[in-house]
Specification:
This protein is α+β, with helices and mostly antiparallel strands. Helices cover 28% and strands 15% of the residues. Strand 8 and strand 9 (318-323) form a beta hairpin.
């Protein structure tokens, strides 16, 4: 298990390009709810507008061992803003850095990619997208589906051959998002245009190349398929369904940044994790089909750690939505367990439109090891 997570940590330092406030210790504010001594929760327990907070023993977890996970996360130089641990639909552990509490906003960074994947699955279920294997050009007026495919061995296929699956698996074959020294987050007013106008460098559907721009193309696909922005679609059919409030950023042209940048409280990120822990169910409603949950959180063919915009660690039974600086949502369905960790976050500017003055800032945790942190959590489970 340690080898797997250490591999991820190495990869994450190479592939995330976004930019990076600090905090330490843990705080309990007057607004935090008291421990509730209620009947034992189960897989049929759900949060309402607020979460139930229980003693870990109610869900067969050892509080002393669970505290080790919190102690690990809140070492001063680890820049942790929040940790929330959910088992059987209730909060069993929760801690915030000094100056923060359960109402403090965190940011997703690339955790948003897994939200985007869910939206694609929902659009397919609603008949708005034919299939995950549809050619992306069917939903993008900027791409010509009749574009001639280069058949020579040293020439990549054209954009007409790129499928939605290729984009979700990060195998579009298009060049990396950093074009001429410019990145999509830092430099593009029209980020969709930026993403669409890259050239092919590999054959689509083959080589994995982590790219925010591949994710951004899904914003355009969702716009065409649903008749609204991805943010509007999420607010209508996803966020509202799980009683989540999220502020999803857009570029200057109004395109939702589907690779990034949902600002929400950590408890609400846990709602999304619980949705996937429960196979897309929320109370009595099927929000995401169990088939999509399974497919998107399973390893893509030929890949070792990635599915459809989810990181997959099959040997540990965890899958995860993961973002820059360890802004993560970890899910273990077999344990009915969700773990959220967010970095100290500062939001600059006046609104959620990405311009020069409107930006996000977080700090990387020092000496962080996902294996060690999560092992403290799983070792606390007594049955």
């Amino acid at each position: 298990m340690k080898k797997i997570f250490n591999y991820y940590l190495l990869q994450i330092s190479l592939i995330f390009i976004l930019t990076s406030c600090g905090g330490s210790g843990g705080s309990s504010t007057p607004n935090d709810p008291p421990i509730v001594q209620s009947p034992n929760p189960s897989t049929n327990t759900w949060p309402n507008t607020s979460w139930e907070v229980v003693d870990p023993s109610k869900v067969n977890m050892d509080q002393t061992k669970l505290q080790q996970a919190l102690d690990y996360a809140f070492v001063d130089n680890r820049n942790t803003q929040a940790v929330v641990v959910i088992r059987h639909g209730v909060i069993v552990a929760e801690q915030y850095s000094d100056g923060n509490n359960r109402f403090s906003l965190a940011t997703s960074w690339s955790t948003a990619k897994s939200f985007t994947s869910a939206l694609i699955g929902m659009a397919i279920e609603q008949g708005l997208i034919g299939s995950v294997d549809d050619k992306a050009c069917l939903y993008l007026s900027e791409w010509d589906c009749d574009e001639v495919v280069c058949l020579s061995l040293d020439c990549p296929k054209s954009r007409a051959e790129i499928s939605i699956r290729d984009l979700l698996e990060m195998r579009s074959g298009l060049e990396d998002e950093s074009i001429g020294g410019f990145s999509i987050y830092s430099s593009a007013d029209d980020q969709l245009y930026f993403a669409l106008n890259r050239t092919g460098v590999k054959t689509s559907g083959t080589e994995f190349l982590y790219s925010n721009s591949d994710s951004m193309i899904l914003s355009g696909i969702l716009e065409t398929a649903t008749g609204m922005s991805a943010k509007e679609f999420a607010e209508r059919d996803l966020f509202s369904s799980i009683q989540m409030t999220g502020d999803w950023w857009s570029d200057k042209e109004g395109h939702t940044m589907t690779y990034c940048c949902i600002d929400a409280i950590s408890r609400d990120f846990a709602r999304f994790g619980l949705l996937f822990a429960r196979n897309g169910m929320w109370k009595e409603s099927q929000i995401v089909t169990p088939e999509w949950v399974l497919e998107s959180t399973s390893l893509a063919e030929g890949l070792s750690y990635y599915g459809l915009h989810w990181w997959v660690y099959a040997s540990t039974n965890f899958f995860a939505a993961q973002g820059l600086h360890t802004n993560d949502i970890w899910v273990n369905q077999s344990l009915d367990l969700v773990v959220v960790r967010n970095s100290d976050f500062t939001r600059y500017g006046t609104d959620s439109i990405r311009t020069g003055s409107n930006i996000h800032s977080t700090n990387a945790p020092s000496s962080w090891n996902n294996t060690e942190f999560l092992t403290y959590v799983t070792d606390s489970i007594t049955q």
